[in-house]
Each structure stands twice: as C-alpha cells, then as structure tokens.
Amino acid sequence: MKNEFILNDKKFRAFCIYRLLFGISYSIMIPIIPLFFKSIGMETVTIGMVISLYGVSKTIMQIPFGIVCDKIGDKLTLKLALLLMGLVPIGYILSNTSLQAGSLYVIQGAILGMAAPATYSVLARTLNVKRRGECTGLASAVFTLGGGIGAAIASFILTKLNNFSMAFNISSLGIFFTLIYVIIRVNKVKPMKDKDNKKESIKEILYEIRRREFVYKIIILSSSAFLGDYIYSCVVALIHFYGQDVLHVSTSYTSSIISVYLLVFGLGAPIAGWVSDKIGNKKQLLYSFFTMNFTLLGLIITRNVTIFTIIIILYFLGATYLNASVQSCLSEFGSYPKIKGFVFGVVGASESLGYAVGPLVSSYIYEYNKNYLFLGLLMVSIFITAIYVVLFNKSGI
Prior knowledge:
By secondary structure, this protein is an all-alpha fold. 84% of the residues lie in helices and 0% in strands. The protein is globular.
C-alpha cells in the first residue's frame, strides 16, 4: 500500500484533473493578454502598472476569502470563482478601450484571489497525509503542464490565425467546462456549523494560531512564498530586456527561458515533493535557499550565455524544491478547520504580493543599472533566507 500509485485515490485524482483543466483553460488567456493590451493601444508602462495591480487585487482578496471559504465551504467558493472567471475572457472580447480591458484584468486578479484559498483547502483534504510532498508536487506539476499546453494553444492561434477573440472564446469554454467538472467530480465537505465557528472572529483566529504556536511557521511560509513569486515575476517581466541589453541574445532565447522554467517545474515538482517526504521540509527548505542564493550570485557574475543557461536552470530547480516544501508544509494546516482558510489566505496573499511588488522594484533597479538586476534579487533572497535561519527552530517545521 505504501508504494500504491498516488493517483489511485479518486478524490486526489479529481483534484489533479481539475488543476490540469483549469491550467489549460486559464493559460490560453494569460500569455496573450499583454499583446491584446498592446493591440488596443495600451502603452508599455501602463501594461506594467496593470499587471502589478493584478497582483495587488489578487493579494487583497485572498485573506478575506480564506475566511469566506471556511464559512461557506471550499467547493462553493471554488464554483463561484470559476463562474466569474469564465466570464472574464468574454469581457475582453467586448472591451473597446484600454481602461475597460485594464480594469477587467485587475478584476481577474481578484477572482483568482478568491479561488486560491479554496484550491489550497481542497488539496489539503484530498491528499494522502503520509505522502504530502508527492501529492503537492504532483498537483503543482499538473497545473504547470496545463499551463504549458494552454500557452502552446494560445501561441498557435495567434501565430497562425492572429485571432484574439478565438483564444478568449476557447479559454472561456474551457473554464466553464472546468466548472462543470468541479460540480460533478470534486467532493463537497460541509463547513463547520458549531456555535464557536459561527461567532469566530479574526481575533479568535489569531489567538488559535498563537495558542498552537504557528506564528513562526506562517511567517516562514509567507516569506518563502513571497520570494518565489517576487523573483519569478521579475524574471518574466525583465528577462527579455536583460537578454538584449546585457547578454546580447535574441528574443527567442529569452522566450525559451520561460519555457524551460515550466519544463523544469513540471518535471521537477513531483520529484521535489518525494524528496521532501524523505529528508523533511526543514532540510529541503535550507538546501533550496542556499541553491537559489548561490545560483543568483552566479547569474550576477556570468555573461557567458551557455553558463548563464546552466545556472538559471539550477536556480529553477532550487525554486521548484522550495515551492514543494512550502506547499507540503501549507497542506498540514488542512487539519485545523478553524484557521486553515485564514492561513491559506495569508500565505497566498504573500505570494501574490511578491508577484505585484517584484516587477516594480526590479524595474527601478534595472533603469538605474542593468547589471544590478540579479543583485537586487539576491539581496531579497538573502533577506528571506535570514528569516528562515533565525526562525526555523521555533517554527516546528
């Protein structure tokens, strides 16, 4: 039974299929949105601001909807978010101005923020607790695989047909199909109805967190999640410019860097999850931080394209292993119904905050000195590493 195939569990299999379907459908829309903005006359600087506001709205929504998720149930919260998200691509088709499209993108971030705590909650209650790392790694991998498939479909539609409306329509249909799948296949768990839960306030939730001595653990998970999306968003936003200005490479090379990230993450996440089960999250987090810091140092120094490629792949591996441990630790809160939604919301909001803040800070650093891009990322990574080193003994990880 110990070596039983992990997807034999029908509840966890249903969750993974949901993540795959949503990954495909959502990622048909995501990569073409900046190009769509450009096509309707939005300036590059404005596009950057809108993308940051997307991250801000996603951040703001996660904590309150973590609590909502606990009150009305994760499946109902997820269904509401998918219903609203299915309407978003249609909204882009109907948008005639930059203001309309930009505002819709910010709303899109808020809807994704609604869905995030519910997604964490469903994962936490469907995974095999004895194989947390493997389960969270596989769940991340199938979503990334779906993202790669969706991006490829979007690329084909734009390259061959140059038709934004077709891509948005397919994305919308895919999200509604995902909603139907969730309604039919994802099992429902009734939210707690006891008196204590009805009257539960933020103050009481925080008291429960302190009583169980989870404060340091949540700080570590939140800061680690922040770091992952902070650096990823910076790489996505600025790698094209860095490649042209510093490495003197083509756009096709810098585009391939993002594809390599998806490949490394998709293939590496299940392995990273399995390793975290074997060596423990405490060790894996430490090894991941040091790998990321040393590779970022290498990216600062090197200007050789081959060496840069090898080092950044190693960085992606470190980030993949970090994410696997964060997800594994986070899933443990599924055993604490009174606080799980709030914790999922806090950690998810921290992740989204990294995505929102990263490009803004790094763009200023890049304008000041193009060679300082990875130095700025290293300083943030060292700071988060220091938080882990100081707190991990008190965190119970």
